[in-house]
Specification:
373 residues; D-amino Acid Aminotransferase, Chain A, domain 1; 2 domains; 5-stranded mixed beta sheet; 14 helices; disordered N terminus; binds Myo inositol 3,4,5,6 tetrakisphosphate; inositol-3,4,5,6-tetrakisphosphate 1-kinase activity; kinase; metal-binding; ATP-binding
Length: 373
């Protein structure tokens, strides 16, 4: 791509650098929450411009993705063959553009079985988190059903699965329906749920976990973990009392306010190194940069953790300082890419480090000043 106008001059009076175009393609709700003025402003200071990509519709006047390019990088959360085709055609014309993330990698997350296979694959490997942190990561027992199994089939299918279970739609494609779940307490409840359904359902063992879920947010190698409210533990008495009940719920753990409300919650966070190790397993295993994963800790065995969900491009704007994490990630990426201009990005990264050091120095001075007052 030809260098654009030199509009960013670093504060350390280094040579002016070129700017980078990051095209983004999101559904309106995502665009509204993610593309905040604070992100645009912060990224812009480091030479990064976020450029909206208009999604081509049936009108002859709409521009194709190629016509809207070129971009240095495209970030996106759109699905479907039409969008994938646009990306394919664009990549043929501009192979240097980084597409984050590739649709084939994202698609693994659209199925609640294949999304967790990556955890099953690294949980048993030696020298992984389990060994280093004396904690074990795995996936709750789960089976896929599309009808109520009878006789021998039930024995084979449901073997080892204990009630209560959570019934989750197999498909996790971002639709409201894909978040609709139910708690089921015995075979009677399961039978009534399956009588009413025609799509495949994942039955996942409910694990008592103290009513909190940990969300590990990944942006490349950067990982942040937060605590959110979850379903409460279920006692044996409740299982008996609730019998054939089917209790529906949806998106109970995605409120940013939970963090504030849980500020005095006694549950310890899992060690960050452990969360980072799990994030790395997912990032490398699925070849994804933008995701979060939900982790719960077994109330009966605090060294045992379960990954229960992985989401593509989650609500990053809920994280404090997401602007910095995003900008650093993109700068690093552009600096290390084979892009001919990447040297400029290295200079920008150096500038960021210098600024951070200066700001730390002034914080320390200010702190001393306060103490001396
Ligand atoms: N196996 C489980 N045991 C106990 N609680 C669970 C289990 N699976 C899910 N939950 C609870 O139900 C919530 C929703 O489940 P899950 O994360 O799979 O759904 P989702 O709709 O994909 O969530 P998100 O909004 O994060 O995409 C979890 O955050 C957790 O509170
Ligand atoms: O909208 P929010 O900011 O809450 O983000 C949620 C995001 O919705 P959006 O992508 O439509 O915005 C969800 O995506 P889909 O599964 O529905 O595709 C999923 O990733 C949730 O886990 C996110 O909540 P979080 O885990 O970050 O709390
Ligand atoms: Mg979840
Ligand atoms: Mg999810």
């Amino acid at each position: 791509m030809a260098p654009s106008t030199n509009s960013l001059v670093s504060q350390s009076e280094a040579a002016p650098v070129r700017r980078y175009r990051i095209g983004y393609a999101f559904a309106p709700k995502k665009e509204q929450t993610f593309i905040q003025p604070s992100l645009l402003h912060h990224a812009s200071r480091y030479g990064i411009d976020f450029v909206p990509i208009s999604i081509i519709d049936s009108t002859a006047t709409a521009k194709t993705l190629i016509e809207q390019g070129p971009f240095d990088c495209i970030i996106h959360k759109l699905y479907g063959p039409h969008w994938n085709q646009q990306l394919k055609e664009y990549s043929l014309k501009y192979p240097q553009t980084l597409i984050l993330d590739p649709p084939e990698s994202i698609e693994r997350l659209h199925n609640r079985v294949s999304m967790l296979d990556v955890v099953t694959a690294f949980e048993s490997k030696p020298h992984q988190s389990g060994d280093r942190f004396q904690s074990k990561i795995s996936v709750p027992k789960q089976v896929l059903v599309d009808h109520y199994p009878e006789g021998e089939e039930a024995t084979n299918l449901l073997a080892g699965l204990e009630f209560p279970v959570i019934a989750k739609p197999l498909l996790a494609n971002g639709s409201a329906k894909s978040h609709e779940m139910c708690l089921i307490f015995n075979p009677k409840g399961l039978r009534s749920l399956l009588a009413d359904t025609d799509s495949p359902i994942l039955l996942q063992q409910f694990v008592n976990h103290g009513g909190v879920v940990f969300k590990g947010y990944s942006i490349g190698e950067h990982v942040q973990c937060v605590k959110r409210r979850s379903l409460p533990d279920i006692s044996e008495e409740q299982v008996t009392a609730l019998e054939g009940a089917v209790l529906p719920f949806s998106q109970i753990s995605n409120s940013a306010n939970d963090e504030h409300n849980l500020a005095h919650d006694p549950h310890e966070m899992p060690p960050l190194e452990f969360v980072e190790e799990v994030a790395k397993g997912i990032r490398v295993g699925l070849k994804l940069n933008f995701f979060n994963f939900d982790v719960i800790r077994d109330s009966k065995d605090p060294s045992s953790y379960f990954v229960i969900d992985i989401n593509y491009f989650p609500g990053y704007a809920k994280l404090p300082n997401y602007e910095h994490a995003l900008t650093d990630f993109l700068l690093n990426l552009l600096a290390t890419s084979s892009h001919p201009q990447s040297q400029n990005q290295k200079e920008l990264l150096q500038l960021k480090e210098e600024e951070a050091a200066t700001s730390l120095e002034s914080d320390v001075k200010q702190h001393r000043g306060h103490k001396e007052d």
